[in-house]
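Troubleshooting log. The previous structure file for this entry was overwritten by mistake, so regenerating from the original sequence record. Sequence copied from the archived sheet and checked twice against the printout by T.R.
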Amino acid sequence: MRNPVVVVGMGEMGSVFARGFLRAGHPVFPVVRNMDMTTVAYELAAKQVEPRLVLIAVAEADLHPVLQEVPAAWRDRLVLLQNELLPNDWLQYELDPTVISVWFEKKKGMDSKVIIPSPVYGKYASDIAEALISIDIATHVLQSSEALMFELVLKNVYILTTNIAGLQTGGNVGELWAHHRKIATAVAREVIELQEILTCQGCDSTALIDGMVNAFNGDLNHQCMGRSAPGRLARALDLAEKKGLNLKTLKKISAASQA
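Regenerated output below.
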């Protein structure tokens, strides 16, 4: 039997990874809402159970409270998968996690749907790739932190552009690019401006927009926005204001959506 894996958060995404770990031969210890991580870590240690890795599969809004409470014994075993993730999210806690940019969708009552292969980087990248491949979810292991940065920014550009532009256009990503390319491009460029400020480095806008379109082509029927879209727009504008960035297109969409 292989070393166990701890999965913190057993929602739709956590359940997919748990199934992959089980298929790959790892026992899975879940940490669900209202369970204390420190208590679980203590109980596992008392049983001489040493987890191979600890996957943090909570929602974006819950990530920072969870990272603040990660037990000392788990700090060097973390794997993160949240959307809108950037290095400062873990560096502020002096962590060096394995990170995967998830490009598959999982909704309640439906099986996983792959858009494009999910890139992963870090100490446990091969474990993550093996688990996902065992359940037919395509992935690939990155070779550098620079490659990871590009992939994280790309995912942010995809999510924020589709969600925010979708507030104005509705529809799916295929329709967005075919019929509303001007607004999609304007939003994408402002999102990239924000990512440059947040990462303190320049971004290749052409490569990012090409990557976004490649993801569009992976699932042309993917809906542009869900319940989280207004929150993503508000969060983007709040971050931009704090950084002194004037995102005119995003402000215009926000004003129209509130009218």
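The chain has two domains: 5-143, 146-258. Archived copy saved in two places this time.
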